[in-house]
Predict the structure.
Amino acid sequence: MLSLQIHLTLPPWIGDVVDERKRYVTDEERVGLAIELSRRNIEHGQGGPFGAAVFNADGRVVSVGVNRVVPQTCSVAHAEMMAYMTAQQRLAAFRLNQDGGSYTLATSAQPCCQCYGATVWAGVDELLIGARAADVEELTEFDEGPLPADWVGELEQRGIAVRRDILRDEARTVLAAYGQTGQHY
């Protein structure tokens, strides 16, 4: 019989890391949360070294995501995808900013080709990035896939501001720690 449902979950420790009452005002606070999520994800053995969070204009967390590909046996369960999907469910909107609100995705590492594509359509106005794709490929065995040569320009043409290298050294430290474990999530 064909399955008629898809069921993806985030690990239970997420509630210990995320403070929904807090306002994450600076880029560093937002990316810092994404990096902490990535660190905890490998610490708990729950997936790969990636974390992401969606914030509203007030700086409050709308949703978060961590890499869950292996535990959920789902190739699209990347941190950014999980954050987008949970934000869209929470807001009951397939495009987050469709009602005029402003949303930011903060991610521990540059989105891969899959997450880049989702970013085009998710309805975010800002993309904040810790580590670069080159860092991911240097420090782990992940293949980030092809992106357009001017991927930042492509997003900016669509009204998505991109800021990179936010807490890059901290994000690289998590990637390096994961790479040294020999795990393959």
Notes: The CA atoms of residues 42 and 164 lie 23 Å apart.
